[in-house]
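Run log, item B.
One chain of 406 residues. Sequence copied directly from the ordering sheet:
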Amino acid sequence: MTLQETKLQSEIRLPNKEKLQAPPPLQGDLSSIRRAAEMLARAENPVIVADYLGRDPSSFYMLVALAERLGAAVVDLNSRLNFPNTHPLCLTGSGILRKADVILTLDVRDLYNTFFEIDRESGTHTPVISPKARIIDIGFGDLGISKWSHDYERLQEVDLQILGDTRAVLPLLFDDLQEFLKGRESLIRDRSERHGMTHNELRAGWIEEGRHNWDAKPMTTARLAHEIWQVIKNEDWVLSANTLNSWARRLWSFTRPEQHHGESLGTGTDLGISLGIALSHRGSGKLVVDIQPDGDLMFDAGGLWTATHEGIPMLVVMYNNRGYYNDWEHQIRLAKHRGNPVERAAIGMEIDHPAPNFAKLAQSFDWHAEGPIEDPNEAGPALQRALRAIREQGKPALIDTVTRFR
């Protein structure tokens, strides 16, 4: 690619943008959608599994309507924010898949990994669904297959495959359900109530579990998630990256699709310091929260300068476990499997001796920054001061909180 340097000799005709519109979404086969509606309506315990559905905000709300009409439990795989975690039908993490007789998967990238528990040490694969469960898959999965390469994981058998854009398919499925659900209103109401009770028990259990080692130093990821939530819950917030080993998704209230882009990949390949999302919300009044892994920031330190230089207010809370723990965990697993000393797994994985001081690093770029903080009782007040700096001074803020590994 080069830049135009010589003088143009004639006028350049620009394309007519009205004739270059994106095509409508792929609708899917109508007879298959109708068949899917009948299968779901006749099910005793239908479960919906969503992965990338939330890429379109309208689908987030459409899934709520679909689940409520059907009285179906929803499992959110969190590649996008697909369903409000406060909804009574949200049973993510409950084991509900084991009880499902019909499973509807929506934009699920890896079906096999969804339906099997994989022990990485022994290599054993244990199904988490009944062998009698029927599977309906809606999405673009088959489009990832070509003669040259493929973009699917281990092959998973399904009972009904619908190739289509969930934006277009879900409204049709929703309408078709109405006919097949006549006379089943009482069953749906009872099923919804049971799911609501399970949902409440699940949330209460997470709150109780999160209190384990409540005052530990360094702090637990659950305690840090709690402290952040207490500070931001009354703000118009957006979580741009990490979820602290899923504790944010358990303890916070996610009710709108724009509140989270989806679970981080880690390994330094994801959003990093998330400046793109922060920039997109500049001037909107939204509080952008980045839970920032220490290993990733070791590679993205220049982003701190960019945030100050471009006037991007955001709250960065360090997930600082002083290690490249994603890889470290792999090393530990392999060491156990091979009978090697587990102590050697830390070689090349520690971010310690010396431990980076991310607060001082941020201060050198004119951020409001405090830390390192290991005492969880000090985290809340520090986060409050950071929020004031963002609101009153319009500058980014970083709190360097030191946590346990997980």
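Observations after the first pass:
- The two ends are 45 Å apart (CA to CA).
- Residues 279 and 312 are 6 Å apart (CA to CA).
Flagged for discussion on Thursday.
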